[in-house]
């Protein structure tokens, strides 16, 4: 029995409280209330971490519990207990920490795992890559830069995000002397680490950059500010643009952020969207994992604008 099971209700509440402090939103289960019998039958599953993966797992938790209600309806060998799948957003770092200290079954992570993190999770470490994502370097579609220049090298992008280039006319003399407003994810987000590693290097993002609690919030911030620039995730970019072109993604070193270029590796500012575990996978956990990698999971990944990293039911 995993150490947190006896305290699952308390921990779920604590996780929600922690996530609220971190700017998170909600958790999901089949009824909105934890099952009292769940701790004894190990029928509860807790995911915590990346806000990029959160909407996918959250929607699948809802549809899974709606479809089956109790575990035995998924598989007769499983207990006839209510299904409880909790999903709490908080950032990739929070997710890794939660699964490492045993307060969550799965950590949701929107970046590569670090060697030290894998080592800390031990011999039972498992990773499940759900989607491919990339960080677009996006501006507001109303920004006149989109009409004159849409290709920048990494060095120029680094100078913009560090504040060395601070007004739009410094990028092209035809543009107004308006301040460049930089939007980033908060420091617990996997995207922050990916952008730092692939673009910023040893340079520091400007202290004046506005931090966003989720990738969706970051993309929305850019869409609402004509003088904004930020690294919106490919999924968030597609979702915001689904109702009309609100964002324009700049080419980076001549490479456009497209599905083909992400999958080929030509577009280098990219990351996996995954969840990880450091414990042996239980039968109920495996049942939900199978659902994630089913047709329903594939559809949820696409609906959130990401590139699925699997073929349905191929695992």
From TrEMBL:
The record's keywords, sorted A to Z, are:
Signal
Tell me where in this chain the PBP domain is found: 38-295
The source's superkingdom equals: Bacteria
Q: Which residues form the signal peptide?
A: 1-22
PANTHER family, alphabetized? PERIPLASMIC PHOSPHATE BINDING COMPONENT OF PHOSPHATE ABC TRANSPORTER, PHOSPHATE-BINDING PROTEIN PSTS
Name it. Answer: Phosphate ABC transporter substrate-binding protein
Protein source organism: Berryella intestinalis
| Taxonomic classification | Bacteria, Bacillati, Actinomycetota, Coriobacteriia, Eggerthellales
């Amino acid at each position: 029995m995993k150490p947190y099971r006896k305290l699952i209700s308390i921990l779920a509440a604590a996780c929600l409280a922690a996530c609220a402090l971190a700017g998170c939103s909600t958790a999901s289960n089949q009824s909105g209330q934890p099952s009292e019998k769940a701790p004894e039958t190990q029928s509860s599953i807790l995911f915590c971490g990346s806000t990029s993966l959160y909407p996918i797992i959250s929607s699948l938790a809802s549809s899974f519990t709606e479809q089956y209600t109790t575990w035995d309806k998924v598989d007769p060998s499983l207990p006839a207990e209510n299904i409880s799948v909790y999903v709490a957003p908080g950032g990739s770092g929070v997710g890794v920490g939660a699964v490492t200290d045993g307060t969550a079954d799965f950590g949701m992570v929107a970046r590569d795992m670090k060697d030290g993190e894998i080592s800390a999770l031990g011999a039972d470490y498992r990773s499940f890559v759900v989607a491919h994502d990339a960080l677009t370097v996006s501006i507001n579609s109303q920004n006149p830069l989109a009409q004159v220049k849409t290709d920048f090298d990494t060095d120029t992008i680094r100078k913009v995000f560090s504040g060395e280039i601070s007004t739009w006319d410094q990028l092209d003399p035809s543009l107004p002397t308006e301040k460049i407003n930089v939007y980033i994810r908060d420091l617990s987000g996997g995207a922050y680490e990916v952008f730092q590693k692939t673009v910023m290097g040893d340079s520091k993002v400007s202290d004046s950059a506005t931090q966003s609690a989720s990738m969706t919030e970051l993309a929305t911030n850019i869409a609402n500010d004509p003088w904004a620039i930020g690294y919106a995730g490919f999924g968030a970019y597609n979702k915001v643009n689904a109702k009309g072109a609100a964002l324009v993604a700049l080419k980076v070193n001549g490479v456009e952020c497209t599905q083909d270029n992400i999958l080929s590796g030509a577009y280098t500012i990219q990351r996996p969207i995954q969840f990880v575990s450091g414990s042996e996978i239980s039968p109920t956990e495996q049942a939900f994992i199978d659902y994630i990698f089913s047709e329903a999971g594939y559809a949820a990944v696409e609906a959130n604008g990401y590139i699925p990293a699997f073929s349905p039911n191929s695992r």
